[in-house]
Specification:
The structure is a single chain. This protein is an all-alpha fold. It has one domain. Helix 3 crosses helix 5. It starts with 12 loop residues before the first helix and ends with a helix.
């Protein structure tokens, strides 16, 4: 068995990932620091007038930011022709799950005091909590199956499962729209971005099915094959494509 081809020294992705880790962790660390200041009395207004609302909104915002960024990786790859964008998707997707879990934990622990009966009642009665909790539930299997081993075990079903990420995006928009009610600016912006990203995914696939793709569309069509990886780790698929081209 031949040894795997090592990454080139000029490959920027390891450095990009190294830079992304502290950037993506920074919001959580900042919130932890503000909680420390508030709890120790050093700055009782560190989290604003409503600390629970502050923590809930900020963790939810960053869950959406990371989810949107993970969805943008495939269109960026198609439009730029630079395949390494795909290799950042798994990291961004897992951080989306991380912040979504923090978002739910803040609500369940700090707002409800781990009162599961109250939580279930809110899920049933309040639409914005229903769709938000549904989005988190759908993220769980995507996070669990975001490994190469799970890709092998699930086969074609893996790609079908990870298409749920777009359903999750729609649920996030609904969750935020029902929550804010008055100012719909952010939900509308995220909804427009999600629509554009979905269109950039569907259009090349439709062109491929009709057999009308020419030279210009070929890079887009190749990316559709990689899209089967959802937001999980794309490094292995990219290496195979890279060797073939080389």
């Amino acid at each position: 068995m031949s040894a795997p081809t090592p990454l080139k020294r000029t490959d920027p992705i390891p450095w990009v990932k190294l830079a992304l880790w502290p950037l993506l962790l920074a919001p959580a660390l900042r919130l932890a620091w503000l909680m420390y200041l508030a709890q120790t009395g050093q700055d009782q207004n560190a989290l604003g007038a409503d600390p629970i609302a502050y923590l809930t909104h900020h963790t939810g915002d960053w869950a959406a930011y990371c989810l949107g960024a993970s969805l943008a990786m495939t269109p960026l790859r198609r439009l730029s022709g630079w395949p390494q964008w795909i290799r950042l998707r798994r990291l961004l997707g897992l951080f989306a799950f991380f912040y979504a879990s923090l978002h739910l934990s803040v609500y369940a622990a700090l707002d409800l005091g781990f009162d599961l009966s109250h939580l279930w009642a809110d899920i049933v009665k309040r639409p914005y909590i229903t769709v938000g909790f549904s989005a988190w539930l759908l993220l769980v299997p995507l996070a669990i199956t975001s490994t190469r081993g799970m890709m092998r075990r699930l086969g074609r079903r893996w790609g079908q499962l990870h298409r749920l990420v777009y359903v999750i995006g729609v649920l996030v928009v609904l969750h935020y729209a029902w929550l804010v009610k008055a100012d719909l600016t952010w939900p509308i912006v995220f909804g427009v971005v999600l629509t554009i990203l979905l269109a950039l995914r569907v259009w090349p696939a439709a062109r491929r099915r009709t057999g009308a793709a020419g030279h210009f569309e070929r890079p887009f069509i190749e990316a559709v094959q990689i899209e089967k990886e959802g937001f999980a780790h794309p490094l292995f698929g990219w290496c195979r494509h890279g060797r073939r081209r080389g």
